[in-house]
Write a structure and sequence with these properties.
By secondary structure, the protein is α/β, with parallel strands linked by helices. About 35% of the residues lie in helices and about 25% in strands. The chain has 28 helices and 38 strands. The strands form six sheets. It has an eight-stranded mixed beta sheet with strand order 31-32-33-34-35-36-38-37, sandwiched between helices. It has a seven-stranded mixed beta sheet with strand order 3-4-2-1-5-6-7, with helices on both faces. Helix 7 links the parallel strand 12 and strand 13. Helix 14 packs parallel to helix 15. About 0% of the residues have low confidence.
């Protein structure tokens, strides 16, 4: 799995440094001094071929001469020496290397390639190259050339920039914010962002994960790790390159709308990551998440001695989607009893400019006991009447008592002391009270907490593989696309487009392809017979935007007018684009719906995240209006509605004045169908319906373009190879018969199965739990179980088995692939009272079948020597069983697929 041996690198019991130099100002010397200053308590060795000691530390000539095997080897040696040094470390038995050195190059034949191959030979993990290093305060390890070492805390930082990592350390030192770990990942030769997200998500010392991202290498792996982590703790990202122009060459409107940064934004949203715009907001987010947990809701009470700043805070709160907590009559009565008559009487609770520490304490005490708010923001504007530091000390004391009494149920308290002296900031920080320079920063900090709670709720939703409301004609749709590809064409003609949309039950106006003006007039006569007018458009695979060449004529009412229009259109197109291949004209019924809304939706192909769904306001000025939102498929109705609500045009879908509301679910259902089309036919590279008319009767596609091309799988594993997020794999639901006619229903695990897992564990004896987890297990936290149940099926799969008669959960089996999707590690757990009935054998056969379908080459696992039943079953299933060379009480089992 992706966290394989990462604990050895990030929490090592022994470290060696290769490449330290006696020269002041060198990277190697800085790393050596940082390791020494941090006080690493375990074994440390220095390797240098040319110097017997550096800075008072004795050195040996090679790794072989160390008296111990270093788990982590830190390398600052010249780039050319790195591959051989990794080979030496692998032969010595090291778990991994941190390569700080730069200049290894990229691609086949490079030093980086040689280093990676050397590491893979020994199962070593590599961080870097070209990085600042790592700082792990919990184990007093600073293997970096940063200027400072942060104190131990609850934030993890994963950064693609060494400078950002160093900047965060400097900021943290000023704000007394601590870190569980800081990792500068450099070129990500092996260990990448996703691997480290996995590691820190499982780390009990980490409350929140901060990311600085420049680009994602493996989108499906990243989405899998981020979605899993965000379910159990906040993940916050700042990404550079927001202004990059991502779709200059896009041929469709949807492709042009799907700029690179907009796609990243959609991916972060789908992953449950909180995105911030700059380092200041990242610092503010860290300030909040590093000190308090999420509130139960978004009702904020504001206590202040300045009315103006209180109103500004309320304005910002409402703007960001928060709710000003209401002051109920009962709470108002309590506040009346302790405050002067001039207090505001509402939220913000303005206790007037002459408020002293006692008045703050009295009001805060009432608000802390008020069930009508979810969090409190205490603000102070300094005056000459009451010292700000005395008020801060009083607030710190009261909040401390409140937290000790309420423990986990304590609501968050945030603070703003405008223009505060450093000692006030230090007092608030030391008490674990998030504090900010302005009311805007504080409200943003509160909303980050709120957003994380909402994210956790959203992530428990699992999109179904296929919406239940319709069954598309997938075979017919595939036939259309295959025919176009066989012809060597990129674009479907309008008739093929109508047939493709029809296969997915997306209605489109009556459409005919005419080779000449006479044929156009004949087709138009059929439309006139139905009482509709006609539009004529140029039909050319080379002219995508028809209006650019005068290729559209509207509101034609007679066959003669159609004949004339078709003749003129053909002439204009030939004059404007003489090289274009022109097949004739398209004749369509003219749809006149005065109260219909013009929308655009479709598919775009992103080089990083694969297929993207685009929705927004349609029409010819779609790029100018730029009212759009993006989402990663798959979609269900809930996710489709969320996509729609993120646009301004969503307000027009509701009823207003004499315009009825658009038919419920009509538009989101088209989005779901288009997403399903993308899943079924990856060769559809871009799709653009513009406009899609929507009114109280439903939807109608007026114009659409579809581009196709041989799909190259972007992501490993099964499922749509163009989707960064995998759908719920309902095809793996099975009814199985076990020994003695016992029938069980097996399906992939879901987030809502968490209570069932807790119940299963109550039916497992302590002995069996120890055999499964290799240690006595007294309790299982929500975070622990959430990691088991909340999968996105990209790198991990778990099957749950239910007794068909009792409907009780009786067993679970899971597999987690490694970071390169070659091998998977399995685990299995059954109810103790149901062992010996063949369920284990059945579930193991199922997980082996699944691993084969995923293209994995090996299944492996660790089994205690005393677990004779499991070892026998593994042998019978064809596993090789060998004693673990490092742990005498463990056997390694391995099955080649």
């Amino acid at each position: 799995m992706s966290t394989y041996r990462l604990k050895n690198l990030l929490s090592p019991r022994s470290v060696a440094l290769i490449g330290a130099s006696p020269r002041r100002g060198s990277v190697g010397r800085a790393v050596l001094e940082n390791i020494r200053k941090a006080g690493f308590e375990h074994e440390f060795g220095l390797v240098n071929l040319h110097h017997a000691e550096i800075g008072g530390v004795a050195a040996v000539g090679s790794l072989d001469k160390l008296q111990f095997v270093p788990e982590l080897v830190v390398m600052t040696a010249p780039a050319a020496a790195i591959p051989d040094l990794i080979d030496q470390a692998g032969r010595r038995g090291s778990a991994g290397a941190l390569i700080i050195s730069a200049g290894l190059g990229h691609g086949a034949g490079s030093l980086a390639d040689a280093a990676e191959r050397a590491a893979q030979k020994y199962g070593m993990r590599l961080i870097g190259p070209n990085c600042l290093g790592i700082m792990m305060p919990g184990v007093s390890l600073n293997a970096s050339f940063a200027a400072h070492m942060p104190r131990a805390g609850t934030l993890a930082l994963i950064s693609q920039s060494g400078a950002i990592s160093a900047g965060m350390v400097d900021w943290a030192a000023q704000r007394d914010v601590g870190f569980s770990g800081i990792v500068s990942i450099g070129d990500q030769l092996d260990v990448d962002i996703a691997d480290l997200i996995d590691y820190f998500a499982l780390d009990s010392a980490t409350r929140a994960i901060l990311l600085y991202v420049e680009a994602i290498k493996d989108a499906r792996k990243f989405m899998s790790a981020a979605r899993a982590a965000a379910r159990v703790k906040p993940v916050v990202v700042v990404k550079s390159g927001r202004m990059a122009q991502g779709a200059k060459a896009a041929a469709t409107h949807t492709g042009a709308l799907a700029g690179a940064d907009a796609v990243y934004d959609a991916a972060f949203r789908r992953a449950g990551i909180l995105r911030v715009s700059d380092l200041r907001e990242l610092f503010d987010c860290a300030e909040t998440l590093g000190r308090v947990g999420p509130p139960p809701g978004k009702r904020l009470a504001i206590l202040t001695n300045g009315g103006g700043i209180g109103v500004l805070a309320i304005d910002r709160l409402v703007e960001l989607g928060g709710v000003p907590a209401a002051i109920t009559p009962a709470i108002r009565e309590k506040l009346d009893a302790v405050l002067p008559r001039t207090w505001s009487g509402s939220n913000p609770v303005d206790i007037v400019g002459d408020a002293d520490a006692a008045r703050y304490a009295a009001a805060l005490d009432v608000l802390l006991s008020d069930p009508g708010n979810d969090a409190i923001l205490v603000m102070n504007v300094q005056t000459a009447i009451a010292p700000a530091d005395e008020i801060a000390a009083t607030v710190v004391d009261l909040v401390g008592k409140y937290r000790r009494h309420h423990h986990r149920s304590a609501k968050p308290v945030l603070a703003v002391w405008v223009g505060a002296e450093q000692k006030v900031i230090e007092a608030l920080s030391a008490a674990g009270i998030p504090n900010y320079p302005t009311e805007d920063d504080a409200v943003r900090g509160f909303m980050h907490l709120v957003r994380h709670r909402e994210v956790v709720e959203e992530l428990t939703r699992v999109p179904p593989a296929m919406p239940d409301a319709f069954v598309p004609d997938v075979a017919a749709a595939k036939q259309i696309v295959a025919r176009v590809l066989a012809d060597g064409r990129k674009w479907l003609d309008p008739i093929e487009v109508k047939e493709l949309l029809g296969a997915y039950d997306i209605p489109m106006v009556a459409t005919f392809a005419a080779a000449n003006a006479a044929q156009a007039a004949a087709f138009a006569a059929q439309i006139f017979a139905q009482g509709a007018t006609v539009v004529v458009k140029i039909n050319s695979r080379d002219i995508v935007h028809k209006s650019d060449v005068g290729g559209v004529v509207l509101n034609l009412t007679s066959p003669e007018a159609v004949r004339t229009a078709a003749t003129d259109i053909l002439a204009r197109a030939k004059a404007a684009r003489p090289e274009a291949r022109i097949s004739g004209v398209i004749v369509q019924a003219m749809v006149v719906k005065a109260k219909a809304r013009e929308l655009i939706l479709g598919l775009a192909d992103d080089p990083t995240f694969g297929t993207v769904i685009v929705f927004g306001r349609g029409g010819t000025a779609v790029e100018i209006i730029n009212d759009k939102a993006l989402a990663l498929p798959p979609l269900d109705l809930h996710l489709a509605n969320d996509l729609i609500e993120r646009t301004r045009v969503s307000r027009l879908l509701r009823a207003y004045r004499d315009v009825p509301a658009v038919k419920p679910d009509a538009v989101p259902m088209v989005l779901v169908k288009v997403a399903q089309l993308a899943a079924d036919i990856p060769d559809v590279r871009e799709l653009d319906i513009n406009p899609l008319l929507a009114d109280e009767n439903g939807v109608m596609a007026v114009d659409a373009r579809v581009a196709v091309g041989q799909a190259e799988p972007k992501f490993r594993g099964s499922g749509p190879a163009n989707f960064a997020v995998r759908a719920y794999p309902s095809q793996w639901e099975r009814h199985l018969q076990v020994r003695d006619h016992w029938r069980v229903f097996v399906r992939p695990i879901r987030p809502e199965d968490e209570p069932l897992i807790h119940d299963l564990l109550r039916h497992v004896t302590p002995h069996d739990l120890r055999l499964r987890f290799f240690a006595p297990m007294k309790e299982f936290s929500h975070e622990f179980i959430a990691r088991l149940t909340q999968l996105d099926y990209a790198r991990a799969m778990a099957f749950v088995a239910f007794d068909e008669a009792t409907r009780e959960l009786v067993g679970v089996v899971r597999i987690h692939s490694d970071s390169i999707y070659e091998s998977g590690e399995y685990a299995i757990l059954l109810r103790s009272d149901l062992k010996g009935r063949g369920l284990g054998w059945t579930l193991m056969q199922l997980i082996i079948e699944y691993a084969r379908s995923e293209g994995l080459k090996v299944i492996s696992g660790d089994v205690l020597q005393e677990n004779i039943v499991m070892l026998d079953m593994c042998r019978n299933l064809g596993f090789q069983v060998k004693a673990d060379p490092a742990e005498s009480d463990i056997c390694n089992v391995r099955l080649k697929l």
